[in-house]
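JOB MANIFEST
job_type = single_chain_structure
chain_count = 1
residues = 648
[input]
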Amino acid sequence: MTAKKTKTSPLLVRHDVSLLTDDDLYLFNEGNHYRLYHKLGAHVLKEKEAAGTYFAVWAPDAAQVWVTGDFNGWDKGSHPLAHRAQSGIWEGFIPGLGPGALYKYHVASKYGDYRVDKADPFAFAFEGPPRTASIVWDLDYAWEDGDWMAQRFRANALDAPQSVYEVHLGSWRRVPEEGDRFLTYRELAPLLAEHVQRLGFTHVEFMPVMEHPFYGSWGYQTTGYFAPTSRYGAPQDFMFLVDYLHRHGIGVILDWVPSHFPADEHGPGFFDGTHLYEHADPRKGFHPDWRSAIFNYGRNEVRCFLMSSALFWLERYHADGLRVDAVASMLYLDYSREEGEWLPNQYGGREDLEAIAFLRQFNTEIYKSYPDVQTAAEESTDWPMVSRPIYVGGLGFGLKWDMGWMHDTLQYLAVDPVFRRYHHNTLTFRMLYAFQENFLLPLSHDEVVYGKGSLLNKMPGDDWQKFANLRLLLGYMYGQPGKKLLFMGGEFGQWSEWYHEASLDWHLLNDPRHAALQRWVEDLNRIYRQEAALFTQDFTPGGFEWIDCNDVMQSVITFLRKGREGELILVACNFTPMPRYNYRVGVPAGGFWQEILNSDAFDYGGSGHGNLGGMEAAPIPCHGRLNSLNLTLPPLGVVFFKAESRKA
């Protein structure tokens, strides 16, 4: 983003123009103002009698605050703001100043001689890193996604198919002919929409797009909670990307990080010479893992800031959901800390009561304002009722990432098939807790970095077995109860780990094996979206039934997925490279069972073992059922059968 230079007259700041009412101040200090982005920050006013930019910033322990920028030669004393009553807010209006002006706040603290230039915590736009100035910006945009917005409640419903493609914008695809530069938001739009549509994903999830100074943080060290990163374009360019995806029937989920923020000098930390946004005591205010600051959730104004940020992305950018990062680090006061490095709560416990209250407040307000979106928690512990309503004691999220399923499944698949029989319970354990939460099954970016290997390279065996194992993993995931998430590159089998400084290896699709794997993902998504049995009852035990989870010696599992109207899908997984012939499986209905998916088909790079499109159930009892199928289970394969005879 290139900001235009804006010149103004040398007039002093006017203090007779304000967007803040007494009610705003009361709600802000009380902790109940959830749309501060309408009031704080820099706002362009276009009325002829008051054309210019209004500034407002919270700095209660400042002795004085000035606006400094390219419009006044970065003079730190020419444009002072005025203190508004006892609110802690400083405000002022600069006539003639319009969009594109660069600015910061020069803050002089009440304490000592501390002075600092701070970016605007509420800025709508920023200079491109490594520069850190805020930019006066207008967020006007003519949205064209009305049809999507009117019906998105269907796509986001808990009983709808949700297959999420997780994307890091800076490394999905680059332009090697131009120095390996990033694609812009507008360049990404048609390419990403075409890819996601062709493969059949229902949503994309963007790793944090909020402005962040360090690209290597992948966006998880946020300083601009109201600004999309300028690395890929202006705010309206990001709006165009969301708009374009919506117009092509694709939902957009944004990663959001209220758990911590970086300690860069221009950021919110130690804003006015005090620990304003963060806890002062490092035992509560410093995160040892990420060496970053932790928000003070007990402070009313900080909660307003975070709540306003969450609602901002839903209102101004039409996001269809927020995935909240690192929820576990918010819930526990002793997260990643040794004894003596943390402070207990008022009852002597390890639970962060203020963070818990904030998360419940967050979900309450999100669903009250936007009942057609979803929130999802990345929560890696066994904290109870993360995705249960607040009125029964839950945190109120719509979904929770099933990190246990991810860990256990990848651990199991990494084992040589010869030894999988000794780890069978690792595979089946999930069904003991599968309906305690509304789970999303994630194969995310975290699983393909830091020496963990790509999904394809995690798999044991020769190349053929690696591809077969990965097809099996993906098929097993789509058969399991829960919504689905796959990180970019997993759909065609990246060999290398994800690296944020480089594009995905799209040339691999010239290799028939990788192209075949992508066809498998495309067909998985197609069948998943077509078959109600695979998604309408993801979160109730009525949607799942084991046929046999105890065939340890052959490393085979078989189960049923059930729709609300009695639809039946049989899923059979063979986790060994030995085909299983004449493998009898009990089924609850007679008639013809159509083989609708087979990961070992030639089209997917398999060996062609299968069941000739399906078979009639025989009246031979098996697995406690009166009818059964005599199947061929392909090596390292998964097969899906649909009951065609009748609804059961």
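[summary]
The CA atoms of residues 429 and 462 lie 28 Å apart.
The longest strand covers residues 62-69.
exit_status = 0
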